[in-house]
Specification:
By secondary structure, the protein is mainly α. About 60% of the residues lie in helices and about 5% in strands. It is built from ten helices and four strands; from the N terminus they run ααβαβαβααααβαα. The chain has a two-stranded parallel ribbon. Helix 3 links the parallel strand 1 and strand 2. The chain is elongated and about 65 Å long. The two termini are about 35 Å apart.
């Protein structure tokens, strides 16, 4: 470790920002810092390490395992989505989900949207399924409910998407399903509204 990395690894309390370019040793610094936290008595289940890709998460787990006792389990190292799934599998009741909720992938979402377009008699030429799903995803990212989106829908294609959004959410709920956007949204909502779960 260089002096800056060593300083980051040995900082055990308070916020810490590591700002560095690609290939500069950020993952090395983070994994050594996690190993140092464990060496100083922090239980592994109280450490959260989040990455953007499965590949990066696997690499981080592998490196940490080599730095600490190989039998230590770090339950909260993964991507944003994988960690949220883990939390929701534990706190499904508080999140208002079925115990065995299913996660819709892109193909499942498109199949559902196409089915709903037929049911609602929406012409695929007026609204493409991928466009509808993109708008729905954007709404969820911005925490905009179907009713809130419908209130701002002005053009005909927006009104179609508003109907689809409402029907899409109802159909998912009826099937005990969530999509990838829901994983983040539901955990955010859970932490915001349920201090016990957050703790």
């Amino acid at each position: 470790l260089n002096p800056e990395q060593k300083n980051a690894v040995e900082t055990l309390s308070g916020p810490l920002l590591i700002l560095a370019g690609a290939g500069s040793g950020k993952t090395k610094t983070l994994t050594h810092r996690i190993a140092n936290l464990v060496a100083h008595g922090i239980p592994p289940h109280q450490i959260l390490a989040v990455t953007f890709t499965n590949k990066a998460a696997s690499e981080m787990k592998e490196r940490i395992t080599k730095l600490v006792d190989g039998h230590v389990r770090f339950p909260y190292i993964g991507t944003f989505h994988s960690i949220c799934v883990r939390i929701l599998r534990i706190e499904y009741e508080a999140a208002g989900l079925d115990k065995n909720f299913v996660i819709y992938d892109t193909d499942d979402q498109q199949t559902l949207i196409k089915r709903l377009m037929k049911q609602l008699d929406i012409d695929p030429k007026s609204v493409k399924p991928k466009v509808a799903l993109s708008v729905i995803s954007k709404c969820k990212t911005e925490n905009t409910s179907p009713a809130e989106y419908a209130a701002t829908a002005y053009y005909p294609h927006q009104k179609h998407i508003a109907k689809l959004y409402e029907a899409y959410e109802a159909a998912k709920t009826a099937s005990g399903a969530v999509d990838f956007d829901d994983l983040l949204l539901l955990v955010d909502r859970l932490f915001t509204t349920n201090p016990t779960v957050l703790q």
